[in-house]
């Protein structure tokens, strides 16, 4: 596997593989039946535990996925295909084993040419819980809510071993599995026609994805460079598209994704922000019901080991959030995530906004991406977006906000259709934004975040004592927080909301941002900024504190999430007076 594995993974093999060996002995198979262990799903970190290939007595070619679990008990949980069991030392929510097996099967049927739905290989899936004794009266894993997944991928418990052996025998008893296994291993990895058509149907004819003015210019630039690359196969291109909040970067990216897939390109859509990635997935899946659409969207740490030019096109949204290396990923000397994306693809597209860098870990600035591209040698092209499609299309509001936060922009009156207000207390903010307008409350990272539940509930970390106000940060287990109905009275942090948009946003500005009357200027208070992972080291004497830009960028990002309006409450009264004066 070319990697060191954990003790827990070794134990899982030691416990599960002898159980499967016994099953195979009982299944009475011919010797040239083939087994693949820890088969890696292409361009993901996921692996199939056990894969067996061969012919049945009718001569049909079969492949069976077996998902192995050491579980001893589980409970039904809320959510489609979700259960609760003991993992990693505590009770956790995870996917039902039948859902997991089915999802791996569907992934291969959508991305491996040898296993598309018109393949001669019949692909099946199941789960085997060899330590789990089924409750014959009321087994949670067999609950009605999981029926569709159980029908697709049956589940076998400890005393179902002979039944599993019999079912395996029926599928692969005649052996001759080598050719099937090799076809699967060597199958070309590209989305199936069905999946491509699904994505195309989601984009075309949908007013939300219509391209306007410079959006169309940027789209055509990428399209032309891709077509040039196809005629000159040794040519690589990097296209950097610069644009502020609400300039339609994601609209361009999704249109490009649809075009590339329809053109037969091997393409993926990258978003470093997990919450943004999940909202995009759910928006598209919700329209299509085609859950495999989610597999086209990847995190930015997915390309560490990808071969050079493996992909035709990689589209990286929110590229300013790229990191040196991914969480729990081994760093490759001389590479960062931008380097890895450029190396892995013939055409790489980066959407970037330097004013949305909000952490010391964010390295994906325009200059860094351009520098990495030049080092790698491909042609570099730059497109700039200017028009505003968020904040009621009010470029005036963006310019006013930039000037207010002292990050550029011209002194201007706040005018236009965008609804901006300063409220006098946080309760009023919740009432106006959540209760009346169905929006979400956001806040700067000026409060600690205690992620452990208290009596089964989220701790109310965001506290404004003078108004007896307290609300929890967004549930870290709900990455779809911004659209989930149960999360209305939770507060989104910058890491959750970057890239997202909503009709109305209410922003609590903590004491990390304030106003100094003597200098008549915005100030940043380092001691009030609580995000230790994002906070840069203190500057040396005479140097400007880099935290100043990060905090100002954070509040600009939060205050530009609203499509129709943004209301703010300031913990610093002087700052509230300063904003009102400039209104």
Automatic annotation (TrEMBL):
Record GO terms (molecular function): helicase activity
Family matches, as SUPFAM superfamilies: P-loop containing nucleoside triphosphate hydrolases
Schlafen group 3-like DNA/RNA helicase domain boundaries: 236-572
Pfam families per record: SLFN-g3_helicase (PF09848)
UniProt entry tagged with the keyword ATP-binding: yes
Source superkingdom: Bacteria
Keywords of this entry: ATP-binding, Helicase, Hydrolase, Nucleotide-binding
Name of the molecule in the record: DNA/RNA helicase domain-containing protein
């Amino acid at each position: 596997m070319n990697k060191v594995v954990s003790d827990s993974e070794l134990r899982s093999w030691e416990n599960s593989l002898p159980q499967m060996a016994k099953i195979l002995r009982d299944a009475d198979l011919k010797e040239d039946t083939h087994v693949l262990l820890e088969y890696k799903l292409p361009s993901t970190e996921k692996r199939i535990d056990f894969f067996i290939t061969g012919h049945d007595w009718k001569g049909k070619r079969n492949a069976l996925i077996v998902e192995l679990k050491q579980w001893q008990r589980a409970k039904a949980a809320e959510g489609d295909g979700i259960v609760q069991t003991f993992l990693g030392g505590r009770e956790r929510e995870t996917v039902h084993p039948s859902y997991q097996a089915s999802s791996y099967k569907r992934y291969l049927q959508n991305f491996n040419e040898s296993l598309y739905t018109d393949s001669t290989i019949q692909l099946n899936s199941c789960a085997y819980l060899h330590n789990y004794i089924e409750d014959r009266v009321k087994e949670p894993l067999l609950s009605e809510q999981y029926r569709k997944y159980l029908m697709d991928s049956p589940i076998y418990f400890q005393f179902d071993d002979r039944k599993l052996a019999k079912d395996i025998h029926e599928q692969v008893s005649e052996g001759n599995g080598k050719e099937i296994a090799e076809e699967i291993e060597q199958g070309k990895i590209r989305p199936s026609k069905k999946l491509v058509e699904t994505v195309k149907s989601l984009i075309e004819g949908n007013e939300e994805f219509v391209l306007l003015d410079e959006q169309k210019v940027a789209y055509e630039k990428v399209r032309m460079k891709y077509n040039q690359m196809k005629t000159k196969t040794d040519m690589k291109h990097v296209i950097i598209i610069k644009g502020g909040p609400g300039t339609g970067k994601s609209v361009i990216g999704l249109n490009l994704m649809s075009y590339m897939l329809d053109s037969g390109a091997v393409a993926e859509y990258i978003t470093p922000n997990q919450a943004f990635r999940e909202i995009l997935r759910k928006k598209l899946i919700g329209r299509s019901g085609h859950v495999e659409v989610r597999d086209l969207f990847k995190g930015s740490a997915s390309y560490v080991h990808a071969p050079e030019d493996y992909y035709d096109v990689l589209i990286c949204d929110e590229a300013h959030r790229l990191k040196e290396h991914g969480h729990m990923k081994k760093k490759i000397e001389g590479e960062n995530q931008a380097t890895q994306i450029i190396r892995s693809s013939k055409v790489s597209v980066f959407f970037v906004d330097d004013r949305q860098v909000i952490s010391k870990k964010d390295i994906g600035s325009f200059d860094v991406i351009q520098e990495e591209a030049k080092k790698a040698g491909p042609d570099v092209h730059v497109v700039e977006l200017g028009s505003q499609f968020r904040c009621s299309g009010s470029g005036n509001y963006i310019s006013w906000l930039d000037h207010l936060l002292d990050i550029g922009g011209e002194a201007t009156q706040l005018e236009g259709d965008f609804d901006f207000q300063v409220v006098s207390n946080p309760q009023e903010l919740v009432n106006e934004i959540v209760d009346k307008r169905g929006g979400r409350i956001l806040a700067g990272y000026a409060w600690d975040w205690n992620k452990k539940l208290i009596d089964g509930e989220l701790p109310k970390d965001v506290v404004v004592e003078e108004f007896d106000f307290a609300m929890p940060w967004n549930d870290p287990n709900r990455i779809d927080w911004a659209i989930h109905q149960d999360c209305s009275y939770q507060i989104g942090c910058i890491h959750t909301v970057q890239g997202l948009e909503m009709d109305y946003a209410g922003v609590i500005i903590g004491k990390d941002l304030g106003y100094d009357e003597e200098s008549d200027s915005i100030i940043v208070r380092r001691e009030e900024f609580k995000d230790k992972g994002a906070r840069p080291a203190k500057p040396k004497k005479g140097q400007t504190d880099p935290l100043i830009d990060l905090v100002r960028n954070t509040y600009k990002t939060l205050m530009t999430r609203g499509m129709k309006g943004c209301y703010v409450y300031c913990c610093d009264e002087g700052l509230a007076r300063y904003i009102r004066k400039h209104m």
